[in-house]
Design a protein that fits this description.
This protein is an alpha+beta fold. It is built from 17 helices and 19 strands.
């Protein structure tokens, strides 16, 4: 799932000056007897509809409002949620889920039919969900999504009010992990049928999880309150949460230090040592299942259809400088797409063809490749990098611009707010895009499936290779996890040999958490559901 970016230096300094002039922390009063949490969450969500969402910051809120058949434990592992238990057929294709007695936030029972309705909805062509490709795992899912098969043929059926049967296209032993993803959340059939897409508005939003939507003030905050109908409501500590868009990370850092925010889901990487000195115990870092990378628009930019050009641009990036000198928070230079530590994968995965070369040798290689492709000092390659405007991304793209200029490429930079940048990526309104992919579930397929020919909008560069697709298909049909891992590694090797994208570094999770907040468990998945959190000394 893409990470959403933030803001540039001039507005940042203005915001810092504003904060400096404030007389004290501005924190809303918490109702008597309740525990409240003030949560900084990077960017303003575009939607709270699980089947229309795209960005990780949206998932933070949606994942507190809703749950699926499984959910995230404090350590990010999958645990039962709306499903109490399940069985799997011997061939791994049929999964039968037994639902607990659960209710929507309006008191209506949650039934198996809600799931059937939801999976048909996300796959309906008119829904145009960016994550529909995940749900095509269900039998006939791709045909339903293409409008070539009736919704009733989908491999999801209710065997009773509390028994759901899912039939898959191929074995998926990672299914409990995948079912945590919001694309598999149920939506309230009885409300969507009446309100349509307007069901997500405050006052009509009905949720399945520990919280319910109270209000949404655009540009200010989203407020949620404990859902009294949640089956485990008595174990939920925090009564009320406000999620604030915090695009200026240094400003957010100061708000956390001042006590205005209890949590912020990011900080500027190169400030880690300062934060640790000034705010001991607040900074939380942990290796992540995420990769920062560049995508090349091969559909519209003729130069990028030449693999020599893509290889030259990828090789010329000084990943070591970016990770170790610019960011300095534990990021690791990346010469592969699937991060180390990913479950169900080979121990030593494939890397780019230039991974063992030093930076100067890589730049020499890049110059030779560009010359072979016809780009010379007299006829230079001219490209534009479009990205969101987080402080980290600003540093990165300026470094990449310098690296590419050093090999004779003319480079222009364009920065937008995160939502605008990703909308441009989806519409292919870019030449080179800078982004990060956070794993939707702990399996290499969450990375490799992005580059399948039929993935759709999130295959931002429109990479297409029949051999790559065939290897992924063979891996999906392989029930043995070790044999499957080898096939997936072969697929990644094919993609990296063609430099379909340019990996930059493996991401480190970064958060600021007030030591008074308990229940936050650092984990590779970087999922921290609010139902597990509490605040010591809360009034």
């Amino acid at each position: 799932m893409p990470l959403s970016p933030l803001r540039l230096l001039a507005p940042l300094l203005a915001a810092l000056a504003l904060v400096a002039c404030q007389e004290g922390p501005s924190r809303p009063a918490c109702p008597a007897g309740e525990t409240c949490l003030e949560f900084g969450n990077n960017t303003e969500p575009a939607t709270l509809d699980p089947q229309q969402s795209n960005l990780i910051d949206e998932f933070q809120v949606i994942g507190d409002l809703n749950v699926g058949l499984t959910t995230d434990a404090p350590d990010g592992a999958p645990i039962p949620a709306l499903a109490e238990r399940w069985e799997t057929s011997a061939d791994g294709l049929v999964w039968t889920f037994h639902l607990r007695e659960a209710k929507w936030s309006d008191g209506t029972p949650i039934t198996a039919e809600d799931f059937v309705f939801s999976y048909r909805r996300i796959l309906a062509p008119e829904t145009a969900s960016i994550y529909a490709y995940l749900v095509t795992l269900l039998k006939n899912g791709a045909a339903v999504n293409a409008g070539e098969a009736a919704p009733e043929t989908l491999g999801a059926r209710a065997l009773g009010p509390r028994t759901l049967e899912l039939t898959l296209e191929h074995p998926a032993p990672y299914l409990p992990e995948l079912l945590k993803h919001l694309s598999f959340f149920p939506v309230p059939r009885h409300v969507v049928a009446q309100k349509g897409d307007a069901w997500v508005r405050p006052g009509t939003y009905v949720s399945s999880g520990p919280y319910q939507l109270v209000s949404w003030r655009l540009g200010e905050y989203i407020e949620v309150a404990k859902n009294p109908h949640f089956w485990d409501a008595e174990a939920v500590c925090v009564d009320r949460i406000r999620y604030y868009p915090t695009p200026d990370q240094v400003t957010a850092e100061r708000r956390v230090a001042a006590g205005e925010l209890d949590i912020n889901t990011g900080f500027q990487s190169n400030r880690l040592s300062r934060i640790e000195e000034a705010m001991p115990g607040y900074a939380r870092t942990h290796i992540s299942l995420a990769t920062s990378y560049l995508s090349f628009n091969t559909r519209d930019v003729a130069a990028f259809r030449d693999p020599r050009v893509r290889k030259a641009l990828s090789a010329a990036i000084d990943r070591e400088f970016i990770a170790e000198k610019l960011l300095r928070a534990g990021q690791v230079p990346a010469f592969a797409f699937v991060p180390p530590g990913t479950a169900n994968y080979v121990e030593d995965g494939p890397t780019t063809s230039f991974a063992d070369m030093g930076f100067e040798a890589r730049q020499d290689l890049a110059r030779r490749l560009l010359a072979e492709a016809g780009y010379t000092p007299e006829r230079p390659l001219s490209i534009e990098i479009k990205t969101g405007n987080t402080p980290d991304t600003t540093l990165i793209i300026q470094a990449i611009q310098a690296d590419w200029q050093a090999i004779g490429v003319d480079v222009a930079l364009v920065q937008n707010e995160g939502q605008i940048a990703f909308a441009a990526y989806r519409m292919r309104d870019f030449e080179v895009g800078a982004m990060s992919w956070y794993a939707d579930y702990n399996d290499p397929l969450t990375f490799l499936e992005l580059l399948k020919s039929d993935t759709g909008p999130q295959n931002y560069g429109d990479y297409s290779n029949p051999r790559y697709d065939a290897l992924l298909a063979a891996a999906n049909a392989q029930p043995d996890l070790k044999a499957r891992a080898r096939l997936l590694a072969q697929a990644e090797a094919v993609m990296l040999s063609e430099d379909a994208l340019a990996p930059i570094y493996f991401v480190v999770n970064k958060a600021l958490v007030n030591p008074r907040v308990t229940g936050w468990v650092d984990n590779i998945a970087n999922f921290h559901r609010a139902r597990w959190l509490c605040v010591e000394g809360a009034e």
